[in-house]
């Protein structure tokens, strides 16, 4: 009975996914809420269906949508790529691929979204996606164009106001951005991304209290959203609570051990508090896990430079140049360190010469003093003459004739 229920539930969801009706693209909240067991059951059924018929692109597409729903974007991308290979001219598959790539911040997302549009896949959800991708590329005029197009079809859709708010925030119009994000919440109160964007804006404009309060509420209401822990660390860093921010970043890294960018955050907080040994350890760890990334090497160089260890700084920049030999910033830093080392060598040579000259002068002065030193006082019977009057040299005595005698 239970198996029948799960099968029925899964199939109902899949039918709704494959529907080409307008309701499918109205961006509704999911009829399958975040019930992990239900998603796992649906995934299991789909996997069995794929084993039985591996050449059917529809099942890969549906499984990709399920993976996307539980935020398993890497597996979702694998499945949608399989679906697209089996049916490369499907605008629906191209759209789903672009959406998943957007979640992963892949640069190919815009290209695939536009390809879906070229396949005459005309839906407001695609227009919103293209607007967001253009906005990320700072093509704000194009983003507004697609937002206007989507708004004409669905004027009260929360996702339109969310993307509009993000687009305005990227242009620096934070007041209008906040207004649109709050409007998005009136249509969908449980949309995590809207809260996330509000928190980022509050943090950016130094409304630290508002950011922290809202962030704590979101952590409570969305306990599985680990990114909120990351947000909290950013807010604390912005507030100047550097040690607290570092502890929260470290806690987040334990939750997301593959987020190597967080190592950079932790290392910089060590660096800012002048804990150079801690910074070196973190940046070395980052460099070891990403050996082709020049950023940890640059930061290591900065740590060594702060300690006046220009040889070690130069070594790390040279490692980075081997990775990116045409990087002008790296070449500039290398020249700067070489100049500093040459300057220190000149200073050392001058100081050494000064010491040698001083030593030579002192030795000459000592020799001169020895030459001018008076003869030591004569001693009588081994004792000092002291105040005893010196014996005068005898003079010649002339003895004359005694005139008193006859």
What's the SSE blueprint?
Layout: H1 2-18, H2 36-52, H3 57-69, H4 73-86, H5 91-103, H6 109-118, H7 124-136, H8 140-153, H9 158-170, H10 174-187, H11 192-204, H12 208-221, H13 227-238, H14 242-255, H15 260-272, H16 276-289, H17 295-306, H18 310-323, H19 328-372, E1 379-380, E2 383-384
Antiparallel strand pairs: 1-2
Helix pairs in contact: 1-2, 2-3, 3-4, 4-5, 5-6, 6-7, 7-8, 7-9, 8-9, 9-10, 9-11, 10-11, 11-12, 11-13, 12-13, 13-14, 14-15, 15-16, 16-17, 17-18, 18-19
Principal-axes geometry comes out as elongated
Radius of gyration: 41 Å
Approximately how much helix is present in the residues?
over 70%
Q: How far is the N terminus from the C terminus?
A: 178 Å
CATH-derived topology of the domain at 1-18 and 32-121:
Serine Threonine Protein Phosphatase 5, Tetratricopeptide repeat
Please report the total strand number as a whole number.
2
Under CATH at level 1, the class of the domain at 1-18 and 32-121 stands as: Mainly Alpha
- Any low-confidence stretches, pLDDT <50, length ≥5? 1-34
Strands in their spatial order, largest beta sheet? 1-2
By CATH, the architecture of the domain at 1-18 and 32-121 is named Alpha Horseshoe
Percent strand equals under 5%
- Summarize model confidence as the mean pLDDT: 85
Q: Name the CATH superfamily classification of the domain at 1-18 and 32-121.
A: Tetratricopeptide repeat domain
Compute the number of helices.
19
Structural class: mainly alpha
